[in-house]
């Protein structure tokens, strides 16, 4: 659906974007991430035809943006960070105006406008002046204009920027539904949005693509070591012995290990309580009630695989089960998208040059 091949954008002697190269298949929702000034907006403007690349080629559904820009643009719906709305128009008149701009046939305009209003939840607001709409409904209207001509590719630049939590959830759901019939390139600074909506992640830094991967494969791509957090019930020394005797285990670390001598105050308190209860029972001739024994100790651990990629959860389960040591909790630890984003965008020295015409800065 979209092919971006070795695309660069020069501003004087400075490079805004350096040999960007990626493609998107039909039905994909791709999250496009990067710090301010990384080149996201410049890249999206080149894809949509608002800027011409200095080098490289862009194809949309087989149409070259440089050779057949009109045909390529017809395949694209674009929602910039600030929706291109006319505040003095009504919702319905604005969408009819956009339909004319997009060369939607006159006989289909009423149907297309009605479908867009229904899909974006704008029913009952057709006659409302745009300036009186809330920020959330303005974003909905911006999405409506982007899909009105039934494009195959949607380019969305910060579609949830400035919205309240309820509006963000609503717009995310709308984008997810749009992804059923459209290919979507979504630029955002809200990283949880990528996990909630996207099935692929592109990260750009200093004008270059530094990561192109599916969310579930990010840890493997980053060479992440397989780590498991455990909570096990039983004697501490025995648990540590069992784990460290496994050949597949590389390292075992205790989490929140009790400090030396920490148990003594608890024992003293228990003895005091027993003495007080004994004295009370003797004074009142009430039979003493035996105190229940203290709960068995549980130990929290972080366990690392000896082989960076080996899944050690099954081996842990069988070893501890055979030793009669119940596992109360087991969870694989992995790098979050936030961790990966920071690692990829802070390892290199920052580029202080500004991209002309790039509101991403």
TrEMBL record:
Keyword RNA-binding: no
Listed PROSITE patterns: ABC_TRANSPORTER_2
Chain ranges of the ABC transporter domain: 2-231
Single GO molecular function: ATP binding
Alphabetical list of SUPFAM superfamilies matching this protein: P-loop containing nucleoside triphosphate hydrolases
Keywords in alphabetical order: ATP-binding, Nucleotide-binding, Transport
Matching Pfam families: ABC_tran (PF00005)
InterPro entries according to UniProt: AAA+_ATPase (IPR003593), ABC_transporter-like_ATP-bd (IPR003439), P-loop_NTPase (IPR027417)
SMART domains: AAA (SM00382)
Family label: Belongs to the ABC transporter superfamily.
This protein's name: Vitamin B12 import ATP-binding protein BtuD
Gene name of the record: btuD_12
């Amino acid at each position: 659906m979209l092919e971006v091949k070795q695309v660069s954008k020069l501003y004087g002697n400075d490079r805004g974007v350096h040999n960007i190269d990626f493609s998107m298949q039909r039905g994909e929702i791709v999250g496009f991430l990067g710090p301010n000034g990384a080149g996201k907006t410049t890249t999206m403007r080149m894809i949509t035809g608002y800027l011409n690349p200095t080098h490289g080629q862009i194809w949309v559904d087989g149409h070259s943006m440089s050779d057949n820009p009109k045909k390529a643009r017809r395949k694209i719906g674009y929602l910039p960070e600030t929706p291109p709305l006319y505040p003095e128009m009504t919702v319905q008149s604005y969408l009819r105006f956009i339909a004319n701009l997009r060369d939607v046939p006159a006989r289909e305009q009423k149907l297309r406008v009605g479908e867009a209003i229904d899909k974006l939840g704008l029913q009952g607001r057709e006659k409302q002046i745009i300036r009186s709409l809330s920020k959330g409904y303005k974003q909905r209207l911006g999405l409506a204009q982007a899909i009105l001509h039934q494009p195959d590719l949607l380019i969305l630049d910060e579609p949830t920027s400035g919205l309240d939590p309820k509006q963000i959830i609503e717009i995310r759901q709308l984008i997810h539904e749009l992804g059923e019939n459209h290919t979507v390139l979504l630029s955002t600074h809200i990283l949880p949005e990528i996990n909630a909506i996207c099935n692929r992640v592109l990260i750009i830094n200093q004008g270059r693509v530094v990561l192109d991967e599916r969310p579930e494969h990010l840890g493997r791509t980053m060479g992440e070591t397989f780590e498991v957090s455990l909570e096990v019930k039983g004697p501490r020394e025995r648990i540590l012995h069992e784990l460290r005797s496994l050949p597949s285990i590389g390292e075992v670390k205790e989490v929140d290990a009790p400090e030396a001598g920490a148990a003594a105050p608890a024992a003293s308190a228990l003895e005091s309580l027993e003495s007080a209860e004994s004295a009370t029972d003797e004074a009142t001739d009430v039979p003493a009630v035996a105190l229940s024994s203290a709960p068995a100790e549980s130990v929290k651990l972080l366990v690392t695989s000896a082989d960076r990629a080996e899944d050690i959860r099954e081996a842990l389960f069988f070893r501890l089960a055979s030793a009669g040591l119940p596992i109360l909790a087991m969870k694989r630890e992995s790098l979050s998208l936030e961790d990966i984003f920071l690692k990829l965008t802070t390892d290199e020295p920052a580029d202080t040059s500004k991209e002309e015409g790039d509101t991403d800065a």
